[in-house]
Predict the structure of Glycosyltransferase.
Amino acid sequence: MPEQPLISVLLTNYNREQYLPYCIESVLNQTYRNLEFVIIDDGSSDNSVSVIDKYHDSRIHFYKLKENHHISYATNYGLQKLAGDYLAYMDSDDIWSVDKLEKQLTFLQKNPHYKACFTWVDLIDEQGQCINSSEKALHDLYASTTSSREEWLRYFFFEGNRLSKPSALVEINAAKETGCHTLAYVQAHDFDWWIRLTMNHSFAVIEEPLIQMRRFKNPDRNASGESPAQDTRFFNEYMMIRAHFFDNMPQELFTRAFQCCFINKSASSKEELECEKAFLLQKCVHGTEAYPIWGLYKLAELLQVPATFQALKTGYNFTPKDYYELNKTVLFYSKDRISELENIINSQRDELLIQQVHIEKQDKIISSQIDSFKQKESRAREEIAALFAHVNILQDTLNQTVTESEHLKAQLSKLYSSASWKITKPIRFLNKFFRNSFGKRSS
């Protein structure tokens, strides 16, 4: 490699003593050697510090926080300690492929217009066993592709995150420009950071799994694990991020990214674009109006300003009366409403299970048909092979017959041209004559 830039690997850890050795060694054993390994222990109460202290590698810079502050604080603390040209995030229960950094750095050096790159992932359980099949939905989610900034911003806004934090490699200047992680976020802190990174920089995805990302059966052991409390916090963080999604987005970028979703496709003035933002915020979850609260907040603000009040009225035929109708939507959920939604979700889940059973039955039928076709194909191939063998035998017999015929023709030709044949020609004539003559008399 012509250049050997320094890569700063940033690992934050809290109570992961069991998995730390796998994580640390996967970093230290990278084929790309020029790295610094900044480890922040976020006030662990287990033996994590002792595990880390056992590694005597000059590339390790170990910092111990006296108390647990959680991941955003620990990450921001670590960001201040970096000296490298690139930043690579790492989680303390995950594992890198041995050539991860080398492949990513080579890619970025060959494609300098990208300021960061991510990779695909393999999912593993507590024992390190691959669970890509059983966690297919999540595995497929992380199998993203390289897209434009505009495409990614639309996906982030309507759908959410599909990038893996420990797969990231980011140019340090782009990382510094993106800034610190927001302390208010725990589960979506990386998602918020990706959005801010994308505001100014393009990134790529290497379509190869270069990390093993661990999933736990106990949801409390994953910051992004699934449990009612975790799901609630995750959704709340996502909604807070969406509330501020457009705050620092340049007008030109906003138009390029979201014009395809505009109500007024020709919207261009500052007031019109603010109106478009309000309407987009009404359907910021999967493009539906299930959670319109931020859009209503925004519309309420716009109605108070004469310029945007007029833009709403003339460009969108939207007046306070329309707002009053929108405000009849359920925004804040009572226990009855939550129970109603849970029933809907359970009904949808039951329907999905029925569809899954049907799909499994169809799979079995298709598999049986495929097996039958394979058996028929095998028999047909055997019959064709037998026919070809018989044809070969007939061909050999024919060739032998032709050879014998040619040999007889040669012998006859030799006989007809011999002197004895010519001398005996009169005798053969007389013999034929008398045979014919006596044959006629006897008849």
